[in-house]
Amino acid sequence: MPDAALHIQSGALIAHRLLDVADAIDLAQAEALWRAHAGGEGRRTRLATAAAHELAFEVPPTQLALPPLTLELDGATVVAERTARLYDFGAIALALRVDAGGLDWDAFAARCNALDRATGPGSGTEVWHDTLRGLLDVIGPALRRPAARHLEEDYLFALVRRFAQPLSGDEIRARADLAALLSGETRPLSAQETAELTAQAFSYFADDLVVLTWDRAFICEPRGEGDVIDILEVANAQLLEMRYYDERLDDELATMYALVEGARGGLSLVASRRAARLARRLYAMVAEVTALTEKVENSLQVTEDVYLARVYNAALEQFGVPRLGAAVDRKLAIIRDTYTALYDEASSRRAELLELAIVLLIVFEIVLALVEG
What we know:
By secondary structure, this protein is an alpha+beta fold. It has helices at 27-38, 105-119, 127-139, 169-175, 178-183, 191-197, 227-264, 268-297, 306-319, 321-372; strands at 8-20, 22-25, 42-44, 55-57, 62-73, 76-86, 91-99, 143-146, 152-163, 201-202, 209-212, 216-220, 300-302. The strands form three sheets. The chain has a nine-stranded mixed β-sheet, sandwiched between helices. A two-stranded antiparallel ribbon has the order 2-8. The protein has a two-stranded antiparallel sheet with strand order 4-13.
């Protein structure tokens, strides 16, 4: 018999697509451009429950309301609310929100999978790119050094505000097939896989629950706050930006060694100048990437809200952000060491040239003295 307690009275499914679009976005300019275009509202995001000294954005992102969109989900036409959240470090989070109230658990899971098929990485749909193009056509002047290629990350939230009967977090875990919801599978999963998929579970009050995976999250939050969604979005944005810097440094390392050899070859004076120019270029790149990665890493300050801090740190680990950050640091260290070696080599060659010039002057003076004598 169906479990009446697992009937969802109020809930939503939210698909996110995060894109890296530029090195930076002037949020005030973007907000003004959007208001002038559509008369739409833009607002700086704040976390609903956490006080400013507990959990806060260093530079609050700007959220823009976009026109709603209709989607076909398993033959049913649904209306999706659209929003765009702009981060000053160059990322944009697009969101499609579909109502999921009035469904039983199986229908809720089925609609979640349908939304993933319609908007997820394998969907082949243009819904995200059309939305992005329409947005960038308006706010394009606010982008600083726009990206030629947009890296992307997807995430799907299954949100329950209220079940038909009040349930505790433990009761939800015991009675709902969270592993199937979070994996998108329709066949029964093994006990081992189920345990792994639901391992990252968090509750603060008895009646709330958050369960995280790599690309989906289940959230039961009867009080209606959206802080967990906000901090998971920031963690995904950090993953996106670290991927960008990791790939950028890979490209730099691939060409750096050839440039180093070219800088070292040839006549000593010319090689010294080449080495010095390359050293300056590498130093500028290290300084730029270091400043930008620090900006991304410090985008959300977590201090005293222990629960949200736990969820945030678990999400960063789940997404592999510390691992990518360590890879970026290693590659920056390689480039920094190369810069030091090139700078030292250029200085050494200049010193050698100076010593040679002094010796030649001394020889010239001696020869001149002998000739005059």
